[in-house]
Design a protein that fits this description.
plasmid; 65 residues; mainly alpha
């Protein structure tokens, strides 16, 4: 999920809270090309998980709020 949200943020710096089914094609692409393995099952992020991921995205992009 971090890879997908990082890509979205770099394309347009907005904070999203997408559901699994909204981004499943992008996740599938990442799991097939970047992170080979068994893939993933459907899930939704909790607000705390989403916040933690975006803190990491901001850090990687040197973004200041």
């Amino acid at each position: 999920m971090l890879v997908v949200l990082l890509g979205y943020f770099k394309a347009k710096p907005v904070v999203l809270n997408p559901g699994f089914h909204q981004i499943k094609q992008d996740l599938k692409y990442v799991y097939q090309t970047v992170l080979p393995g068994p893939g993933c099952r459907p899930f939704n992020l909790t607000p705390k998980e989403n916040e933690r991921i975006y803190q990491r995205v901001f850090q990687l992009c040197n973004y200041q709020r």
